[in-house]
Design goal:
The chain is an all-beta fold and 85 residues long. Helix content is 0%, strand content 54%. The structure holds zinc ion.
Amino acid sequence: MHPQSSPLRAGGVQTATEKWRFHCLRCLHVWEELYEARYCGDAVAWRLSGVAAQPPWVDRACRGCDGLWVKALPDGLVARRVTAK
Ligand SMILES: [Zn+2]
């Protein structure tokens, strides 16, 4: 019963790379982006292209028309890794 399968309990940081799909309801532009979610205890820190970012569903502006009617949909987990602190 070693906690090897739950590194979070040992203070590790879990990083998940997630693909998100964005859909503009105004100009119908669709695009995808890879986000990195770092789970550290109860906190989640989001990164986009290595830069700290808001969660994917917050404040996204369309790349095509700058409109704010953008729907964000999770499109699957790309990779997951755990690093011990
Ligand atoms: Zn748009």
